[in-house]
Amino acid sequence: MVDRANKPELHVDTVADWEAWLDSDPDPSGIRLRLRKAATSRPGITYAEALDVALCFGWIDGQKQSLDADYFLQTFTPRRPRSMWSKVNIGHVTRLIEEGRMRPQGQLEIDRAKADGRWDRAYRQRDGDLPEELQEALNADPKIAEAFASQSAQNRFAMAFRVANLKRPASRASRVAEYVEMLKRGESLH
């Protein structure tokens, strides 16, 4: 696997250029796409435009990296077989399908996610919804709830995400118990 720093940079000036590149049998290790910042008048495409096109082709965004005053780099790679979907991206692809923009590669990823349950287990970003098992554990012990609340947003999200994406109830209960013990010890994931 090619690490992010070694992925090639791609500079495109139009959405059509980005679509053409994705249509040209691109390197499956992905790229770092140069995107223009909102405040610049320089040529290029925006993050929102790039993400829409990527989703249409079955690709997904990754880490962002600063470049200069006018541009940043955004990693894009093909969606991995078991990668989770966010509610935000489900909303995007629903809109893209309605607009008639979805490509066969993107539809294939949607169909796979629906078939294996990832579509229904899509996670919410930043909205505070906790899996039922985790919420019950927090409700049962105010000290644990306080320890959880004192965690960084990154840690709270990671715990909720990891619990929510376990399929079996026994696995979810076990993970919650593990996190409760971790919180009792004053530890965090990151």
UniProtKB/TrEMBL annotation:
Pfam families: OmdA. This is Bacteriocin resistance YdeI/OmpD-like protein.
